[in-house]
Each structure stands twice: as C-alpha cells, then as structure tokens.
Amino acid sequence: ASIDAPCNSKASFAVLGAMAPTTVLAISNLGSPILAFTGHRVFAGPYHRNVAGNLLVFDALLGSATDAKAIVESHHVGLVALCRDNPESRLFAARAPDGFLAGLMRGSVPEWLEPVA
Length: 117
What we know:
Blueprint: H1 14-17, E1 23-25, H2 28-37, E2 41-42, H3 51-62, H4 65-74, E3 79-80, H5 87-95, H6 100-105
Parallel strand pairs: 1-2, 1-3
Helix pairs in contact: 3-4
C-alpha cells in the first residue's frame, strides 16, 4: 500500500507503530490515527473538549525549539511525529514560520532531538 500524503492510512503509521510505546507529540490531526494504529499515547486529538492537550501541542509546535524542549522534557515525550503534507502541519508552519514545527518541516532538527525515521 502506498503512504497517503496527509498521513491518514494505517500504512502511514507502520514505522511509528513498530517503535516501543511512548508518548508522542504531534498535531491533533495525527492523534486519532496514532491511537488507532500504534501503541503510543498522544496529547492532542481533533476533540473540542481536549483543551489542555491541544493547548500543550500548540505551545510546543508554535513556540520556539527551546519552548518545545521544555515541554518535551516536562511531559516525558518520547517521540515527536510530523506529517509535512497534512493541512494542519502546513497551517501551523504558516502561522509560526519561526516555530518548532516549521523548523522541523524545513529539515532543521534541534540538537536535542534525534531523527529516527
């Protein structure tokens, strides 16, 4: 099966699903498929009542890499996942072009983060 650009299919999460269960920092659009297709935990999902989790993700992804590092460390995040072609990822990057997610989408990985896939 091919991997869909916006990362909605099970195939899109095969590599992530093969990794040991941990907490994943990702946009809310990826929350449901991460929960459905992997053994990982997430903070955010496309649920309007999950205010605290969604705000945490906004702060991490729209803020600086330094802000994201503090959130990753204080909330015991094991993985940061992104999907460059997901509309929410593009929206976040446009909203905060100097933010953590925008940097990752450009290929700028901070020294405290190690690419795994």
